[in-house]
Amino acid sequence: MPLISEGRFSFEGPADELLKSAVQRCQELGAGFGHFADGPDYDGDELEFTWALAVNESGRFYGSVDDLVVRCESIHRGQFPENFYIAALDFFSGEELREEVRELLVLKKLCELIRLLSELSVSGDLAAEAGRPSHLVFVKPASSGSPPVTVEITTRIQAKMLEGDCPDLGVLSDLLTESGKGKVRTEEYKAIFRLAVAGACADEPTAEARFGVLLDHWGGVLRRFRYDVECLVDRISFEGLRREIVEAELNFVGRMNTAVVDNATKFLGIPISLVAVAAVVGGSSIGNDLLVCAGAVIVALVVSGVARAVRLQMATTTTAFEAALAGMRARASAGGGVSESLDDLEGTFRQRRTFASRVIGTFNTLAWVPPLLGVAVVIWKFPPLWLTQLLADIGWA
């Protein structure tokens, strides 16, 4: 932990073999890693030298964390330095960051935050060049008659910012992953986060002070983002539910209509059966009349079979509709517009089902009228002996 002054430190004292070996290795280093500004001079076992520390990417030395914040320009652009040593902490950048160097942990998080904000910024980083901090742009849209506001943020880190806690960057990091780039929903979430950032800093008049304000309100930014995302998801769910209602109406109500329309041609046998009744009335042979009645009975059986199949189809459709309706009601708010739409959908479906049931029941009943009339006519024209005797007994014959 040497005393560093103007990028140099001096040593004067006894030199053991380890120190002599280190001095020899330093003399073999390139100038980019530092050099001896004075010495090394040996006087017996005494050694004296002044070493000029490196001031480039190969190595940087700082007296304290505050010294690093003041002299290291890369941190203000989101680039955490490498190959540095902090004398006050006896910390080398190759070591693992630990709680004892908590200020560096916070500093690294702030650098990551600046990098992520640069990706999120509307215009990227307008000043991503050496010696200058990042210059980010966010926009607060117009609202309630107020014009849109352009919020510019200069990301200069100050020593006092390292006294706070590390900002939570999990949400923002997930939002800016490579896998999510270009997706419609991800771009909407990015716009929401930009709005939250702009809203947190818009009241601060100077760009230089806005980064500090953003850090102070970072928790509020995350809460605002989560709230707005929930509102977006609810709106998407609402629109999706409305689409499901429309699709359910087209699907299930349409099935009820189709159940009648598609089978209408099968009910055309009923008029033919009525012709058969006329043939029985005008016939003179009991054998021919019975054959005509048998044909009418076959037509009635076919119509009854079709009616039974349609009823089973309607029952299946009703079960599926009730399951779909229950799922949609579970996601809809009671008493809201969607709930009213679901009530209308249920009413329409039940009306169509009742109508279809009555139509099918009517056709099924009408199908049995001709064969029954035909049989009655045959019995009237060719009464059996038991019927003649019965009529005689009651005085009708």
- Helix and strand sequence: EHEEEEHEEHEEHHHHHHHH
Label the structural class: alpha+beta
Instruction: Estimate the strand proportion.
Output: 5-15%
Described by strand count, sense and barrel closure, the largest sheet is:
4 strands, mixed
On the 0-100 scale, what is the average pLDDT?
81
Measured distance between first and last alpha carbons: 138 Å
Describe the structure.
The chain is an alpha+beta fold and 397 residues long. The chain contains 11 helices and 9 strands. The chain has a 4-stranded mixed beta sheet with strand order 4-5-6-7. The protein has a 3-stranded antiparallel beta sheet with strand order 1-3-2, covered by helices on one side. A two-stranded antiparallel sheet has the order 8-9. Strand 6 and strand 7 form a beta hairpin. Helix 7 packs antiparallel against helix 9 and helix 9 runs antiparallel to helix 10. The longest helix has 46 residues. 22% of the residues are buried.
